[in-house]
Amino acid sequence: MSKQITAWLQAAPMAFVLLGFLVAPIIMIAIVSFWGATEYSIYPTFQLDNYEFLFSSPVTYTVFLNTFKYTAITWIITLLIGFSVAYFLAFEVRSLKWQIGLFLLCTIPFWTSNIIRMISWIPFLGRNGLANSALISMGVIDEPLEWLLFSDFSVILAFVHLYTLFMVVPIFNSMMRIDRSLIEAARDNGASGWQTLRHVIMPLCKPGVMIGTIFVTTLVMGDFITVRFMSGSQRANVGRLISNDISLLQYPSASATAVVLLCTVLIVIALLLRLVDIRKEL
Amino acid sequence: MTINTDLELIALTKRYGGTVAVDAIAHHFKTGVYACLLGPSGCGKSSTLRMIAGHESVSDGSVVLGGRDISHLAPAKRGTAMMFQNYALFPHLSVRDNVAFSLRMAGEDKPTRDKRAMEMLELVEMTALADRIPDQLSGGQQQRVALARALITRPQVLLLDEPLSALDPFLRIRMRAELKRLQRELGISFIHVTHGQDEALALADEIIVMNNAKIEQAGPAREVFNSPKTAFVARFMGGHNVLQMPQGHIALRSDQMRITDAQTGRMEGQVTAIEYQGAHVALTAQVAGGQEITALLPDAQFFDNPSEPGQTIGIDWEDRVAHPVLA
User: Fold this and answer.
1) For residue B55, what are the domain limits?
2) Using the beta-carbon criterion (under 8 Å), do B88 and A187 form an inter-chain contact?
3) Which residues form the signal peptide (chain B) (predicted)?
4) Domain A33-181+208-281 is of which CATH architecture?
5) ipTM exceeding 0.90?
6) pTM of the model
């Protein structure tokens, strides 16, 4: 009995933190999403107007579609880069010292803020930026490329830059857990390098890929600042929809969009978890 | 006439930077032999096996199988198969797919693969568990699967890296009988690395004792046990006393020692320990010069005339049991 009380007490601090800073705000958002709003005030009530408006507006669907597009493209690119980098670190770099060193090198960009890393692309990609002037002076192009900045390209480039490490870390972790004698056993059974990769390493990395996928998906789907800066406010995703509402003090409408986004992300994660059991990785 | 699948090691050497792990060893394994590479850890036995398998590059010398130099071939092209110490079963594949892995890599179609895999599983009596994954198997069952996976490639030589070390003692004895049975049935050579002399004696037609990167002695199990050439082999094989005598070192089998009254034996000693071992009693005595002698006495013989620690006794042996050994 007293043992049980101790266990509850030990869990309590974390439970209170989660209750206060995670559960309560979400409940608050859910409640406010049913409130009403005029141009100058919001008032507590229970109505479905916000959701009705949201689901009847074609803008919602376009913006959600755009969010999925960013997520999918970013996911594919971060997965390819993340898997390759993790593979290099885990299997090509032999000494632990180098592995740790190179791994830390990967984290160096995280020493500055997200926004600074994002903004530093702007002078590079701009009309008269480094990329364009270099390409022109090399004679590859005659006129500056317009799509380098303030486009889907620059948005996705920034996403990939910001979030690839979230893919590298869990995949690297999965790979480091692979018993090296499995690789030898595959070779002993006549598997080529590619076959070992395809039939042994890739299946065993699935949990890591899945964790990385969840990171990247939730980060990209919930983002608003990257899209705003890197598209020069010319592209929209759900996060921007919410932030626009908030800046217009339309809290009920913003809450409704947030609830829909939250449900969408949860559905996506639920689908991913059905594909791979990540519990054994944790 | 059978096909020649003799395996020859010629001045085989492995160097890691400045250290020599295997120092120019030479040995000839005859077709169909059960050979044990025996030695303490770090003696180079595992490196030797891994060089034969192709998982470790050969620094110098060569490995010749059936007259063909295989020193630089890929592991799967050598005609050898390896069974790993921890079995190295693929955790994401079923037992059947584990066994069929090499066929899948070779591009066999699924019905053929499954049929051959089931044949192999039958050989190791594991057909009932073909759909399980390795995590759901006991250590002994995993070992059977690992054996089937190695044998499906139809190797001429099967290499076993401490195959029994992960098992509990009871299962170890059962699995070693199983290994011997399989080897006899298949008629291929088994090369088995172990640090357990009892395991080597029980299994091997031929024992190769290694120490400090070199082969200390090689020969039939009985010969290695009965007439060790060096003090190291005598001590490592166990069951021997190694005594320093004026004319050099001699090895004496503990079970050939006789206990007599003080003064009537060749040597006089003081009993330091008595250990009851069931069928035998191990009596340890300290003789002149601080050397220890262990005598393994049948229990009836000991209890007819028991001695106590601290008692002075005589120790005797027949001339024919004393083997001169190199230090």
Assistant:
1) 7-226
2) no
3) none
4) Orthogonal Bundle (1.10)
5) no
6) 0.84
